[in-house]
């Protein structure tokens, strides 16, 4: 047993160990926000090389994965060969899969995996990942907006389950102030989206329908 005189030293050692561990974690988390260099080319290369290591938190995973998707959508990426873009998409997919493996409810990770799989052309796995995002993030409006846009871009490739999830995402957004504006903008700007959105709108209470129509009219009057 520790003596009375050794207890303070033991406590201090434990405290220092704890603070050191916290410092390592803090550094690890911070590194995830400074990876890959400053230019699009440097980030592209770092991602393809697999030299990106997210921190332990969901926030750090979100940041790194979002940056990977941003790189995939960048002008620089559009100038690369199809094979190079596939390599980057696979790097994004692996990062997302790493996140969902440790955090199965990580809805944004499932979304990012789905988006990466569209570049890789694996539509069955795309549907699986998108469906998991719909399930795990059923009430997360900002991810629902991303999913609605992605589903709309690849509507012909959706299976029945992901189409049902898409309807749920649209309904979720129609019932929130920010979400209804997002859906109204897509309704005005994208003719192919209107029929699907209209069917969901008509299933809502009259008061919600009127709010949506008001948003559409205001947006249309600005054109």
Detailed description of the structure:
- It is a single chain.
- With 223 residues, the protein is mainly alpha-helical.
- The chain has 2 domains: 11-103, no CATH class; 140-223, no CATH class.
- 77% of the residues lie in helices and 0% in strands.
- Helix 3 (58-72) packs parallel to helix 6 and helix 8 crosses helix 9 (160-174).
- Residues 1-34 have low confidence and may be disordered.
Percentage of residues in strands:
under 5%
How far apart are the termini? Answer: 79 Å
Question: How would you sum up the major sheet?
Answer: none
Poorly predicted parts: 1-34
> Based on CA inertia axes, which overall geometry fits?
globular
Helix run count: 12
Number of DSSP-assigned strands: 0
Helicity range = over 70%
What oligomeric assembly is this protein in?
Answer: single chain
Instruction: Give average pLDDT, whole number.
Output: 83
The structural class is mainly alpha
| Element-level helix/strand string | HHHHHHHHHHHH
Count of the domains:
2
Radius of gyration: 22 Å
Give a brief description:
The protein is mainly α.
